[in-house]
Specification:
Layout (H helix, E strand, L loop, with lengths): L1 H17 L2 H4 L6 H53 L1 H10 L18
Length: 112
């Protein structure tokens, strides 16, 4: 019995070494199923990698968008500061202009 077991083990290793294991197990009947399974596994791995790449790109875009929002808020604050009347008057003085802010409201010109 021991020689029979050793003979089976030696036969299995020989089949593996010579590449005949699947043929001895009659797996050639299921060749299309094996190829289909391989294709599905390959597609699953590929789609998983694509999802990971997309999620990484989304997180990078979120970080860039947050930086742009901060930049926009800073620019908007600077613009509001420039448009204030007191800032305009100070800027006019810095530039040496004699123009000042109006003291009376503007008059409306009536047309027909």
């Amino acid at each position: 019995m021991a020689t029979r077991v050793w003979h089976s083990i030696r036969n299995a290793f020989k089949a593996i070494r010579e590449g005949e294991l699947l043929l001895r197990l009659r797996a050639d009947k299921f060749l299309m199923h094996i190829l289909y399974l391989f294709l599905l596994m390959w597609a699953t791995i590929l789609l998983g990698l694509q999802v990971d790449k997309t999620l990484a790109r989304v997180s990078e875009n979120k970080a860039a968008l947050e930086k742009l929002r901060i930049h926009h808020a800073e620019k908007e604050a600077a613009l509001v500061k420039l448009h204030s009347a007191s800032a305009a008057q100070i800027r006019l003085k810095e530039l040496g202009s004699e123009a000042t802010l109006p003291t009376e409201p503007a008059t409306v010109i009536k047309t027909r």
